[in-house]
Design goal:
By secondary structure, this protein is α+β, with helices and mostly antiparallel strands. It is built from 15 helices and 49 strands. The strands form 11 sheets. It has a 15-stranded mixed β-sheet that branches. It has a 7-stranded mixed β-sheet with strand order 26-27-28-30-32-34-36, with no helix packed on it. Strands 39-43-44-42-41-40 form a 6-stranded mixed β-sheet, sandwiched between helices. Bound molecules: 2-acetamido-2-deoxy-beta-D-glucopyranose (8 copies).
Length: 903
């Protein structure tokens, strides 16, 4: 008999249920992680969820209280993938109820209930915290406008693994709850309470409610003891109620029989907007009237419940954290039959379909599965995509093999930032001229060969980075028309010729180094431009921490002494006073006052300089701001004479600043200043001459002596240079950030002792107590700290980065940027780091001939790799580097002694 009934109902279900829907109700009921389909005691047909989701793992728990059959679960241990159910919706202009149950019950034996969030369509709908409740049930009412609804689980920080056990979809009467949802469909309803007032015997659900809403008993609401439940069988005319509450629910009421005031208190999860529906039905032979008061406001006065009629009251309250509903008698006893409370959750608009289809085409173009599904902005922006509201405003496809800028990029009209660096782009820069909102465009490190046209259309462009491409020819005029452009990086291309005059303005920084010949003036392409260094100031002074205050005012020129000095200083003082104005006077005062301490620096006349250099006969180098000449002082001392081309229009203040600095800084590993000359417009610095040339000359120059640079010599040079830098960072006052540490700024004397040089010209005088300095990025390509580059905040760690690059050069014997070879070896840091981290010393400079102690090499490699960490806080200090280098040096010395080598 029992078997017969079972087979009959099973046959019926088979006929009615297809695609997961049971035709008689349109229900979809998923047992998540389940392995079998079954019918429950309410005759609801549950199916497995595997047709609706492709991610996650399944398990089963059997220790749920009051449920001997246990429950299946799907959980999502993989943090990367989207965990989304795609729920079919049969009628695309309707309303559905989505209910899900989340169960943890220690299924993984770890005793750590997870927390995570869930989204419906574009809306982030709720946060589940299974520590608070386990199981946890969520119910949403969703206005459908598509044939598929995405229901997704999202990890949250430290939240653990999302898990789900049941998911149900139920159609609702289409006109229900409309007054709460705003301009359809911009709100969804998240259930807080659904109370069957006066009912105390469990919950009421399907089939009593054909829409399978669950109506809870109201016995847990205070003050329960003052009320009485009434249950009377009456027929109702329900056609006036679009929510169609089940008659069984309306047949019970809570009626306050002894007092005048009936109150429900509803604790709420969070501050938000809430929607309240109150149901009344005339189940008593009288017509009571009462005021309805919500949170102290009378929302309806003298509300009357008519016998045998059903009615409802809809109220929305914004930004509330607490909800109480009071019924205050006017005549007879106040009553209520049912209450629903929903939180109103915004449904963000979808991104424009043009944007979505353009992005889809771009995803195909990448040949990768970027996981771009549903909406690009909501509930969470796709990987690589950034949004403002429903607008896609940034796209970062750097390091992805794109090959060309396809026309669909031109459809992303809201883009403000586009980053396509290192995307293997070749050919012309094209298809971007429609992007009128674009502010930052990064096309660096590609193989682009031509600028293309119509740059003037990119009217919002502020930053254009095309460094390290193969762009040739001239720079297009259109760029000059971009009024907001403030950074144009053209470095390391094959550009030549004259830059458009319109680019020559104060507000715009143009970086041009590493091109064939590129400048504003037609005549400037002399040999000076062959310097790989950016023409820029190189020293920054950081005032000593914890030492505020200004120096005393002490501008007594007479006290300085020396006629020539006075002649020097008067115009200077006037110049600086004029430029800086009264407010910064103390700076000038300090500079002048400090002149008294230039004891060591000698002041030369231009005539003396001319004589010493034999009329600037022998060029021995190109510094960061001009050529360097060999000089011979009358006392027979050789000097290096730096003549400054004031092309960058750095003022006399910068010059005086550097002289002041250099004269104070004296250390055996820093090149010392012998004197200077400042006459009319000429600014000349006289340094001691170091006959050994620079480390760069030794490693890479035409007369390179790379083979004689043994590991022990390289270590000695590194130790010396580190000592010099350590003095700048920690020994000198004020502290100094060098800003341009590189091999060509490490000079060697006859005995191969190393000294740091080229303090260029300092530019920034900064507020006391600074931990960093915000500056326009300066430095030399290949040595530049990427964090400084992106934040423009300069600290000692930027020098550490550059020093790390020098160490890598000593280890590998190659330059930081190398245009030949394969792209992955292009950048020394990126190339060497993984090898050295793995202790793979195959990349150590061949000219060392393997004669190094492995432990010594390991130490240096390790500290070098740490020094070039992207995150500056992970880099060591120069003092730490110095101590490691000293150890490595002594290890190598013992190794040589043990193996019988000398040097
Ligand atoms: C459960 O039912 C669905 C839909 O009717 C069907 O696709 C699926 O194969 C069934 N699963 C099992 C385990 O019978
Ligand atoms: C008990 O488990 C069964 C099967 O997993 C499920 O259908 C049912 O809803 C569960 N009951 C409760 C009260 O959780
Ligand atoms: C879809 O819903 C509309 C009301 O929103 C209703 O009129 C129509 O009959 C429904 N269509 C189906 C196929 O259920
Ligand atoms: C979950 O709730 C517990 C207890 O209320 C709380 O300690 C924990 O921080 C919550 N987790 C999250 C992610 O909110
Ligand atoms: C409460 O419900 C149970 C079944 O769910 C029923 O047996 C019992 O009679 C009900 N009690 C009342 C007072 O209605
Ligand atoms: C039910 O009420 C509606 C108005 O709300 C009315 O038009 C209709 O005639 C009533 N039906 C019955 C059977 O009384
Ligand atoms: C109801 O809410 C109002 C305003 O939020 C509050 O002042 C009042 O004390 C509450 N009443 C009760 C009985 O909790
Ligand atoms: C309340 O309304 C009822 C019927 O609508 C009316 O008879 C009664 O006088 C009203 N009471 C007050 C106090 O306004």
């Amino acid at each position: 008999m029992g078997l017969k009934i079972f087979s009959v109902s099973f046959a019926l279900l088979c006929c009615f249920c297809s695609l997961g829907f049971c035709d008689q109700d349109g229900f979809l009921s998923l047992a998540c992680g389940g392995t079998t389909n079954y019918t429950d005691s309410s005759n609801i047909w549950w199916i497995t969820d595997s047709d609706f989701i492709s991610t996650g793992k399944t398990t089963y728990v059997d220790n749920i209280e009051g449920n001997s059959s246990g429950v299946s679960l799907r959980f999502f241990p993989d943090s990367k993938v989207h965990n989304c159910y795609r729920l079919p919706v049969r009628n695309i202009s309707s309303l559905i109820l989505v209910r899900s149950q989340f169960v943890y019950k220690n299924y993984d034996g770890r005793g750590k209930p997870p927390a995570f969030s869930v989204s419906l369509g574009t809306a982030m709908a709720s946060t589940i915290n299974l520590t608070t409740n386990d199981p946890w049930t969520e119910e949403f009412i969703w206005p459908v406008d598509k044939d598929t609804l995405s229901f997704c689980l999202h990890r949250i920080r430290n939240g653990g693994t999302p898990v789900i056990s049941l998911l149900e979809v139920r159609p609702l009467p289409p006109e229900a709850y409309k007054s709460g949802m705003g301009d359809y469909p911009n709100k969804l309803l998240r259930k807080s309470y659904r109370i069957d007032s006066g009912y105390t015997n469990g919950s009421l659900k399907y089939p009593a409610d054909p829409y399978d809403r669950i109506w809870d008993a109201d016995k847990s609401f205070t003050p329960f003891h003052v009320t009485t439940g009434f249950k009377i069988q009456v027929e109702f005319n329900l056609s006036g109620l679009s929510e169609s509450p089940p008659p069984a629910v309306l047949q019970t009421a809570r009626v306050l029989a002894r007092k005048e005031v009936l109150t429900y208190n509803f604790p709420l999860d969070s501050l938000g907007d809430y929607y309240v529906v109150l149901y009344f039905a005339g189940i008593l032979p009288i017509s009571p009237s009462f005021d309805v008061i919500i949170n102290g406001d009378i929302v309806q006065s003298n509300y009357t419940v008519k016998t045998s009629a059903a009615s409802a009251l809809y109220v929305t309250r914004k930004k509330i954290k607490l909800l109480n509903v009071t019924f205050k008698s006017k005549s007879f006893f106040p009553q209520v039959n049912a209450i629903e409370v929903y939180e109103l959750v915004d449904i963000p608009p979808e991104a424009s379909s043009t944007t979505v289809s353009a992005l889809q085409v771009i995803e195909q173009f990448t040949g990768l599965d970027l996981g771009w599904e549903d909406d690009p902005c909501s509930p969470k922006p796709w990987d690589h995509v950034g949004c403002e509201g429903s607008l896609v405003t940034s796209l970062d496809l750097s390091d992805i093999n794109l090959r060309s800028i396809s026309p669909t990029f031109g459809d992303l009209l809201d883009l403000k930032t586009l980053d396509l660096h290192n995307a293997s782009l070749a050919g012309e820069i094209q298809n971007l001229d429609s992007l009128q909102n674009l502010e930052k465009l990064n096309l660096s490190f590609n193989k682009l060969t031509s600028f293309g046209s119509d740059w003037e259309n990119l009217i919002s462009l502020q930053v254009l980075d095309v460094q390290n491409n193969s762009l040739d020819g001239v720079v297009p005029d259109g760029l000059g028309e971009l009024k907001d452009l403030h950074l144009l990086d053209l470095e390391n291309n094959l550009l030549q010729g004259t830059l458009p005059d319109s680019l020559n303005r104060q507000s715009l920084e143009v970086r041009t180094s590493g091109n064939l010949c590129l400048s504003f003036s037609t005549t400037a392409c002399g040999d000076a431009s062959s310097s790989p260094s950016i023409e820029a100031p190189q020293v920054t002074i950081v005032p000593e921490r914890n030492k505020g205050g200004h120096n005393r005012l002490a501008i007594i020129l007479g006290a300085v002494g020396g006629v020539s000095l006075a002649i020097l200083l008067i115009p200077l003082f006037v110049f600086m006073y004029r430029r800086r104005g009264r407010t910064e006077m103390s700076y000038t005062e300090r500079a002048v006052a400090d002149v008294r301490n230039w004891n060591a620096a000698k002041i030369f006349s231009y005539k003396e300089i001319k004589t010493a250099t034999n009329n600037f006969k022998e060029v021995i180098g190109h510094g960061s701001f001009g050529s360097v000449y060999l000089g011979n002082l009358p006392v027979g001392k050789l000097v290096a004479v730096k003549v400054r081309f004031d092309k960058t229009q750095l003022g006399a203040d910068s010059f005086i600043n550097e002289v002041r600095l250099l004269s104070q800084v004296r250390h055996q590993n820093l090149v010392s200043l012998e004197g200077f000359c400042y006459e009319s417009q000429r600014q000349i610095l006289v340094y001691e001459y170091l006959p050994g040339g620079s480390l760069a000359d030794q490693l890479y120059g035409p007369n390179s002596r790379k083979f004689s640079l043994s590991w022990v010599r390289r270590l000695k040079i590194a130790v010396d240079a580190a000592k010099g830098l350590d003095y700048l960072h920690n020994g000198s006052n004020p502290r100094i950030i060098h800003r341009d540490i590189k091999c060509s700024n490490i000079l060697l004397d006859k005995e191969m002792n190393a000294r740091l040089c080229d303090f260029g010209l300092s530019k920034q005088m900064i507020q006391p107590d600074a931990t960093h300095v915000t500056t326009v990025v300066k430095g030399t390509a290949g040595y530049l700290d990427p964090e400084y580059y992106s934040t423009q905040q300069l600290t000692e760690k930027s020098d550490v980065y550059s020093f790390g690059v020098v160490l890598l050069e000593l280890i590998c014997g190659r330059e930081p940027l190398n245009h030949s070879g394969t792209p992955d070896s292009f950048n020394l840091v990126l190339w060497a780091k993984p090898y050295l981290q793995a202790g793979a010393f195959e990349i150590v400079d061949e000219s060392l001939g393997g004669s190094f102690d492995v432990e010594s090499m390991r130490k240096v490699a390790k500290i070098a790799v740490r020094s070039v960490e992207r995150d500056a806080s992970l880099r060591p200090t120069i003092a730490q580097i110095l101590s490691v280098l000293k150890e490595a040096y002594s290890i190598q010395l013992s190794y040589l002694a043990a193996s019988g080598h000398v040097n």
